[in-house]
Amino acid sequence: MHVRHKLRALFAALLLSAGLVGCSVVEMNRTPEEWLSLSYSGLAAMDQYAFSGSMSMGMEEGIMFKPQMFEGKVVNHHQLTIQSDKQDPLYWNPVEVLDSLNRSHESVEIVRSGERDSSGATTLVLRVVEKRDAAKNRWVGVLVQELEQVTGEVVITSGAGSAKRKEIAEQAKQELDAMLRSLEVHTAYEIVVDKQRMLPLKMEENTTFTYDRKDRKLQENRHTSVRFQAFESTAAKTD
């Protein structure tokens, strides 16, 4: 029995020494959907990790707004703290994003494989298109929540002569309701995955919003780029 264990260990070492050949065999046996699921599970299993990135918005006419820079950290699997260089609150939970994509994707494909990142990790790149209904429902929830927060603050801070401010808040609500009825959302992600650790190293999101406003069809674009680092797990320390 002891000899058999030694032979198994030797066989495993030979497989590891095969390098890229071993990786290609593993990749051939895993579908793009499985890689997406593994990257979600791998990140969710981490005790803690950090991420940093930027989010920018632009209009169809070529108008671009200044990017919003942010960085965050997750500890104890789910305790999220995030800081931004702007006063506007930004909520971006990578595990929730991957979980949503894992459950409600329209398509998943491997677009590149075998490249090495700056740390030397062998990677593959997934392109994931989110289901349109899921993307729209998520953004409707976000926009309604933001408007309720703003209009709630208006009501709380309103004093004498505040009728005009309340009227503006009600008008904003009506405009948002009209916009949401015509809203169409298309979201696609590119996710760089460490093939050995099965962890996401980078995520790029591109979202297009199309909606009607005052008899005009408008389009906005959002781009989010996030990098992950400082992975730690009680099962195995990684970095």
Question: What can be said about this structure in brief?
Answer:
This protein has 239 residues and is an alpha+beta fold. The protein has 6 helices and 8 strands.
Explain how this protein is built.
The chain is an alpha+beta fold and 239 residues long. It has helices spanning 2-17, 20-28, 32-45, 94-103, 132-157, 163-182; strands at 48-59, 68-75, 79-84, 105-116, 122-130, 184-194, 199-213, 216-232. The chain has an eight-stranded antiparallel beta sheet. A hairpin with a 2-residue loop joins strand 7 and strand 8. It is globular. The two termini are 36 Å apart.
Structural class: alpha+beta
**How does the overall form come out from the CA principal axes?**
globular
- Uncertain segments are 1-26
Give me the side-by-side strand order of the main sheet.
3-2-1-8-7-6-5-4
Order of helices and strands: HHHEEEHEEHHEEE
Radius of gyration: 23 Å
Helix content: 25-40%
Number of helices: 6
CATH architecture name of the domain at 21-132 and 186-232: Clam
Name its key features.
alpha+beta; outer membrane lipoprotein receptor (LolB), chain A; eight-stranded antiparallel beta sheet; single chain; 239 residues
What is the strand and helix layout of this fold?
Blueprint: H1 2-17, H2 20-28, H3 32-45, E1 48-59, E2 68-75, E3 79-84, H4 94-103, E4 105-116, E5 122-130, H5 132-157, H6 163-182, E6 184-194, E7 199-213, E8 216-232
Antiparallel strand pairs: 1-2, 1-8, 2-3, 4-5, 5-6, 6-7, 7-8
Helix pairs in contact: 3-4, 5-6
